[in-house]
Amino acid sequence: MKVLVTGGAGYIGSHVVRQLGEAGHEVVVFDNLSTGYRWAVSCGELIVGDLADEAAITEVFNSHRFDAVLHFAANIVVPESVENPLKYYSNNTRNTLNLLKAVEKHAVPYMVFSSTAAVYGMPEQTVLTEDLPLAPINPYGASKMMSERMIMDLAAASSLHYVILRYFNVAGANPDGLLGQATPEATHLIKVACECVTGKRDGMKVFGTDYDTRDGTCIRDYIHVEDLAKAHVMALDYMAGGGESRVLNCGYGRGFTVREVIDMVKQQAGKDFPVSETGRRAGDPAALMADNTLIKDVLGWEPSFDDLKTIVSTALAWEKIWMEKQAQ
Ligand code: UDP
Fold first, then answer.
1. Is 220 in the pocket of ligand 1 (CB under 6 A)?
2. The ligand 1 atom nearest the CA atom of 171
3. Number of structural domains found in the chain
């Protein structure tokens, strides 16, 4: 298939681009390089452009005939979305609308959309199924929920088929050290802990130790980026094989506490670093895990890296490579 990948120079997008190339797809990446990198695009063509620029989108669609669009380009930092909500409604929601206008006009048959467990908000359950009511508690989650809805509505009114993937906590890196998370000012737990190992940070904080969990810290479902990337390639095959539109959670269905993750990073690094305990971060539910029954049934997806040690060791190896890469 000929595939457009928005945000293909970013962390998750770049892992998907590599797997798409390996699977024999023809890839065109559209990325504004705001948080992505040219070197991360390992195959296909890179077009530097912004989804806010409708003329640029028109040009891309006029010069290529796509069988599928994979839409990763987005801002993803929850606290920033609270401080600057319109940035998220512009770059996530409006830009998805801009992209969908071209998808509709050119009758692109398939779309895979990067959504998030943040669309569920603060559910009572800890293991989440896709049919739960959506109740995001921050603009990031709301911006993604609105994008999901636009895709569903367009699909209902056209021949578009979609797979919406709701990511849980994505972490880790390509095991060969080719790719990894290079996002500047990352806020995610495993990345932050790895930056403590390399010395980029002096230490880190645990946000909240009074949750009703096994050690008082939050539990999250950490999924290796290569397993997540594989779900995207499988989603394309599924739709090409006549599969109907679906919304699918992407997680392993089990979780680790913040303390367990930090301990694993220290153990794998063979190094200690300062960790202080502080109050809860606003909007953090105690525990979030994916019910992944559906993605396994529908796509036949099975994880290959469901192991915290592997997630952490690949993230750590990448963090060291990335430090050296930056020093060059
Ligand atoms: N967390 C933490 N210290 C950090 C970063 C994150 O204690 O420096 C906690 C955070 O409060 C949450 C968990 O780690 O309970 C995962 O947070 P992250 O930002 O990685 O992902 P989220 O679950 O918010 O998408």
1. yes
2. 20
3. 2
